[in-house]
Amino acid sequence: MTRHDGRRPDQLREVRITRNWLDHAEGSVLVEFGRTRVLCAASFTEGVPRWLKGQGTGWVTAEYEMLPRSTNTRSDRESRKGKVGGRTHEISRLIGRSLRAVIDTKALGENTIVLDCDVLQADGGTRTASITGAWVALADAIEDARAKGLIAKDAKPLTDSVAAVSVGVVDGSPVADLDYPEDSTADTDMNVVMTGSGSFVEVQGTAEGAGAAFDRGLLDQLLDLATAACADLTQRQQASLAEPVRERA
Amino acid sequence: MTRHDGRRPDQLREVRITRNWLDHAEGSVLVEFGRTRVLCAASFTEGVPRWLKGQGTGWVTAEYEMLPRSTNTRSDRESRKGKVGGRTHEISRLIGRSLRAVIDTKALGENTIVLDCDVLQADGGTRTASITGAWVALADAIEDARAKGLIAKDAKPLTDSVAAVSVGVVDGSPVADLDYPEDSTADTDMNVVMTGSGSFVEVQGTAEGAGAAFDRGLLDQLLDLATAACADLTQRQQASLAEPVRERA
Amino acid sequence: MTRHDGRRPDQLREVRITRNWLDHAEGSVLVEFGRTRVLCAASFTEGVPRWLKGQGTGWVTAEYEMLPRSTNTRSDRESRKGKVGGRTHEISRLIGRSLRAVIDTKALGENTIVLDCDVLQADGGTRTASITGAWVALADAIEDARAKGLIAKDAKPLTDSVAAVSVGVVDGSPVADLDYPEDSTADTDMNVVMTGSGSFVEVQGTAEGAGAAFDRGLLDQLLDLATAACADLTQRQQASLAEPVRERA
Amino acid sequence: MTRHDGRRPDQLREVRITRNWLDHAEGSVLVEFGRTRVLCAASFTEGVPRWLKGQGTGWVTAEYEMLPRSTNTRSDRESRKGKVGGRTHEISRLIGRSLRAVIDTKALGENTIVLDCDVLQADGGTRTASITGAWVALADAIEDARAKGLIAKDAKPLTDSVAAVSVGVVDGSPVADLDYPEDSTADTDMNVVMTGSGSFVEVQGTAEGAGAAFDRGLLDQLLDLATAACADLTQRQQASLAEPVRERA
Amino acid sequence: MTRHDGRRPDQLREVRITRNWLDHAEGSVLVEFGRTRVLCAASFTEGVPRWLKGQGTGWVTAEYEMLPRSTNTRSDRESRKGKVGGRTHEISRLIGRSLRAVIDTKALGENTIVLDCDVLQADGGTRTASITGAWVALADAIEDARAKGLIAKDAKPLTDSVAAVSVGVVDGSPVADLDYPEDSTADTDMNVVMTGSGSFVEVQGTAEGAGAAFDRGLLDQLLDLATAACADLTQRQQASLAEPVRERA
Amino acid sequence: MTRHDGRRPDQLREVRITRNWLDHAEGSVLVEFGRTRVLCAASFTEGVPRWLKGQGTGWVTAEYEMLPRSTNTRSDRESRKGKVGGRTHEISRLIGRSLRAVIDTKALGENTIVLDCDVLQADGGTRTASITGAWVALADAIEDARAKGLIAKDAKPLTDSVAAVSVGVVDGSPVADLDYPEDSTADTDMNVVMTGSGSFVEVQGTAEGAGAAFDRGLLDQLLDLATAACADLTQRQQASLAEPVRERA
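Predict the joint structure of the above. Result:
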């Protein structure tokens, strides 16, 4: 089986993680999965939302949005429509939950980190790229807070890493990291979020349309593919964090 | 292991499916999973949304909402807040996708069926009860359309049934059909939608909070529980459809 | 003169008041006027809105809404439209005012009771059924608060009962408790809210369309009909409160 | 009994009806009931809303709004709040219904007249002043349309006139045309809309707060007061229409 | 060159400034530039918005809006559309900035003045009439506050006056104070706000459409026209403030 | 006089114009004025808005928005707030008007080009960078349409170029292209949009706060600075268009 861009079934697209893409944000990453390009900005602020006050715990949340011309044809802005669409809400909530799965909110103290994931260009896998990039921006924001003395020197708010990948069935074969042409023809589409240590954080599998329901055997194959792909992404996240950050001109 | 209400780990709450609960709707079901009570109304209308026109295919969609006092403490109405929340959107989309997985839209013709799932009382599992009940209301609406000649006598828009159940880990043990007290303390929470013939339509598993990520072994156990529970629910749906509908007073 | 369903001009439809229909709410009633079916939930919370704070008085308010398929053809949800319609606002305000007419807010203390009236099925008279049922739910919520020690043992926040009925001119004859077919053809439509002791709380009479204006004689006839009907409803409310509440399974 | 401004119980405030206050509108009236000042503009447009098309009938509707500083203390604009309040909707609907009670929509043809009633200064009775003034603007707009040949020479879309007044119980006595100080202390408040020929179009009586419910005798007294006051306002409307309209400088 | 209404190129339309047009507002002006008629109400309240608290400085802001039938054809209300349009926001902000240019916020103390500019009739120049009228209302509101002891006897919050005029190129000639027919055909349109002492507060020049860009020489001519016109308006503002205010009937 | 970053008063920041930054858009530019970074995407679609149909003319419009973390501290998203702020509207309208000043809409035919200007990083001058970059994206989109045969080979919809710069008074001295630290302390701030041939399209000068009004001499100096700076930007735009566009990896 050959994929339309020549990849093996289990092969990721080219992944690039550019840290410190912004000057103001406490952490920022331009993450690219092939032509998918997402700007992830981590904003650290002291204090927590009202409903958390006085409990000694922090908060991590996320907002995802697509620029109007990130896609093939222009979409209207949600700000102009006056409301945020269901898909946008759903992905924002997924990113936030995924990151909170590796955050010790006690160790974070009463601080809030917001991850803004803005899709500059979309070619499939924007939510999984967002999670993968946002975690790196989050890690940088936590180090920045530590350097500024906003959290304790020995606090360990990050308990693990998280990365995410999409897997699905294209032309009858299970493949990893679908691009837009693959995604739009896939029968089954699954997004899997895993920790660096190999546990599942989210498993979201969907059969799109009549007759696409999948059996347990296929589900197991997809989970195997996702497990391998997330392990690969975890290595790239660690490699990126190991590099010194280039100074912007 | 004993559950707080005395159920075995794999035991569903009492399930009641009352068809024809409304006089106007083409199909309607009051579905109860224990104290969770959802009113599912299927509205059949000729024609399709603009973006589908002229393609000879129909459309099935769903809207989910909770009454303000369905819960322990009153929530503000989304209509008064002027916007629909992320969770509401997410569940509405899930219900719609689940039903479309067993709909042959060509066989439906250019007709639309909207499933309104209004939660009258919430005690955990409102989305899975909604899917399970909505499918029965959908089946009734299709028979009603057939009886009125709105779809062909021999058309088979329904390719299968769907039912859904939540499974999760409570106090370290995998259990099925969590009620609210269980749901609010569960580490891992998974909603599974399956067809009557035993395939997966949706698998949505979530680890809630740090340290809750789950391994493959546990994931497999949860999928086993869900498979058995959905088979049980499928039988109850069929039994309900087999009964003559009582006439309302 | 014979009405289309065989009732006498002054005859109410079958009225059913089912208390305790919900498990969570402090008071709840499923009220039915014929096929019109409204779920009234009373939510008692300590404290008052900001503008009332520190004055030692309580607050009672109401929100009315129709489920999308309560009617013959489906209506869009107000939450999805992003705004609450004029009719919904108007009826919500009417219900709130009607209940406050029999509430001694001093005796209630700094507590708030919200009455949610959700129309599950509409067949005319939804606002009058709402008021009639909401008052019973309100009475139950006050007793519940008394039992929990949230209001004083001897406090009497309820100064009287309220009930409501629609009256109108159908085919030239004044009739009480119009159902939807009658309501939609009536020239004159009047909603009357009265206390248990026979005084008027609200009188809202409307001539629908050109030539429907009514003279004083007809107005007097309609008020007579409404007075008798409200007295009847008052008896049913008292009878319902006198019954022990059945325990839900 | 003396009213705080020296009026007799049945005495209206000084009423001024200034026609043609605007240059663009097809009909326009600045109506003053004492210090209450409302600008009523009638806009005539060919065509009707979509739901009325092709039926050969016209449409009359109204929108009421208060300027932010029409009142003693400034209120926020509804446009800035992003939603129209319940009271505004309710009054807009009342004005529209009242005018439609004297419109033969067939005779109007497929034309729409919108009445904008903007309260420039509020001192009680803004809705009744609006109705009274709007009818004169409506009459002018119809004559303007006749002059322009937009409706037939001999068409009679106006079947009668309408005027409105508030009546209520202040310090225990029934009085007509309450100003703001009276209105804010009244136990009972009733707005009555009547045709020029003395029939009722709307009767809206409200008991404000506990203990304010009113008996049939008082209701009769209030209706008597309103009948006399509306007859008086009808004369002023006719006198105003009889005057030649001054040309604006 | 003759203008369509016979004015000289540098001639203003008839300007009328009627103070105290409202009874409740701390300052109010009906300002007329020919047929353009704007009601400017100044509302003085103690306290400042949250973000200014505790700094010892006051705040002046403005809200502009057009009545639906101020224009030739009726426009929908922004309150009904649920959002405020770009033009409305832009002009509101311009008026606020213009007034703040002559306010010493320290001398004002922690008080807020809101200027509501509601266009009753529009015939070009509504924003410049608003600024010119609003300044007079602002001056009156400050004197009113001084008289009530809300600001110190010797405080001088007003450092200067402001007035505004539109200038533009009509049929190739630069003219001042464009009315609607001129404005709608002008190539270049410039709004200029100046202080009483002759300095610029705002200069907003716009070339409307292709080929309308203007050169420096023309820009200089327009600025000369505006300077003379603003000086003229300044005199009228001072003359108006010098008059005793007529008592309203 | 030395500027905080060592620039001469008339010196622009480093300007970079990167064409073709996106794969999908018909034209796209990442424009940088120092640390200010704006992504400008031009979307060409056949057809025009309804109000322009059938007139044989095209339409060019723009939408501007800032990413939440483009600024020093995070701002809430306008999509989440449910409304677009006044400043966003104002700048969107400015960009659209500026571009239309050099568009021959007849030559464009019935086609629409939307320019999305999303600020990725803000350090002053975001609106002027947007205009300068958007024009280049617009030029590319027009060439793309020509290449695809969507507009005629010899049509010349672009009549000129436009560029924009901010000028202002910082520490008493007029300077060009203010960065954020300069902008936030400037007394006077002026945005000037000019055509490539040296005419003015927009002049927007504002005195911020009391005492900042500026005299004619200063205004002249600022206009001189802007004229020189726009000429410089025009050269850079032309140089950028002259370069072959690098192929993206």
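The domain at 15-242 of chain D is CATH 3.30.230.70 (Ribosomal Protein S5; domain 2).
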